[in-house]
Design brief:
This protein is of the alpha/beta class. Helices cover about 35% and strands about 20% of the residues. The structure holds manganese (II) ion.
């Protein structure tokens, strides 16, 4: 059974025409690529390969080892500052996935501009003003970018190989938190049903992605939770992660979704803020909301964004200074007064 097309979904015709008519494609995504970004890239790679195109995936950051199986069949690399063109080959079209602005692709943005390549974005984040892509397929109602690529494959009548179907499944499960967040809609279950019918094994994928962490992972969660605190009368839960502290304890925390889930499980908590110190003198923020607070709007004032209930930002500054500023803004939002 086909799911009826949502009348408000954007028109795919120009995108299909672009993919059919051009020859050399670069696929890229955001810094520190997640399962949605990688899964969508994997699926689009196979769509373009089926059309006989020359395709390369080059991301701003290296692939985390646990996703390697996904891209075994696709030539994957990351930007290498020590190589000409960062190691990228010439391309006509840059497909940018799971990002709202070109700058989220880090150093690759400059190469795309220098090549004057045609740009095409596939995304489901809250749209931002003037992203400036030549072609765009943006549907902020879609649960994951991988779902958008699945729609593209359907529009082209391409039967995807198993690796690509697993890519779409990983996109979906990453961004819906395995079908528990508010973006989990009918299309998410419909597509998941088709993927499973075509041979995707959910428990096998869960095992590959989430049951292979190091023995140092649970102590990492312990360290992260040990320093947590509340603000705004318990409506905001705050967690601050310092790599030096993890290292001193011989602990690792490659994945923070479990920490976010635990903090969100507290009845009174509306907003979770997780701050992680990056080596570059920047701070990565992950924000989650149960719905009352728009965390996209909260982080947009700091140059970040994402979705209403899940957003992120990457801010220059010390961990202490960034935490203080963002928590102050969050408290002001939760208490319904302008930040001072
Ligand atoms: Mn996404």
């Amino acid at each position: 059974m086909e799911l009826e097309r949502d009348a408000s979904a954007p028109d795919l015709t120009p995108i299909v025409e672009l993919l059919r008519s051009r020859d050399r494609f670069l696929l890229t995504g955001h810094v520190r690529p997640d399962g949605d970004c990688l899964g969508a890239e994997c699926a689009l790679f196979h769509v373009l390969a089926a059309l006989g195109k020359k395709v390369a995936i080059v991301n701003p950051d290296p692939l985390s080892e646990r996703y390697a199986f996904l891209l075994e069949m696709a030539p994957y690399s990351h930007w290498r500052a020590d190589q000409p063109r960062g190691g990228t080959e010439r391309f006509d079209v840059a497909c940018v996935l799971d990002v709202a602005t070109l700058d989220r692709t880090g150093p690759i943005a400059a190469q795309i501009r220098e090549d004057r390549a045609t740009t095409c974005v596939f995304d489901h984040h809250q749209p931002v003003a003037g992203p400036g892509f030549h072609f765009s397929y943006i549907d902020s109602k879609a649960s994951a970018t991988g779902v958008l690529i699945y729609r593209v494959a359907k529009a082209l009548g391409i039967a995807l190989p198993k690796a690509a179907l697993e890519g779409v499944f990983i996109s979906l499960t990453t961004d819906t938190g395995w079908f528990k967040y508010s973006n989990t809609d009918r299309e998410a279950f419909h597509v998941a049903g088709e993927l499973v019918a075509a041979g995707v094994d959910p428990s096998e994928i869960y095992n590959k992605l989430f049951q292979r962490f190091s023995p140092q992972y649970p102590p990492g969660i312990g360290i992260a939770l040990r320093g947590m605190r509340y603000a705004a009368g318990g409506k905001i839960a705050i967690c601050v992660i310092r790599p030096s502290e993890l290292e001193a304890a011989g602990a690792e925390l490659h994945e923070t979704d479990d920490v976010l889930d635990i903090l969100r499980s507290v009845a009174a908590v509306d907003v979770v803020l997780l701050f992680r110190e990056l080596a570059s003198g920047r701070v990565k923020i992950s924000a989650r909301s149960k719905g009352a607070v728009d965390v996209h709007a909260l982080l947009h004032q700091f140059g970040g964004g994402g979705h209403r209930r899940a957003a992120g930002a990457d801010i220059a500054g010390t961990l202490e200074a960034v935490t203080q500023r963002v928590v102050a803004a969050a408290v002001a939002t939760v208490e319904g007064r302008p930040a001072s």
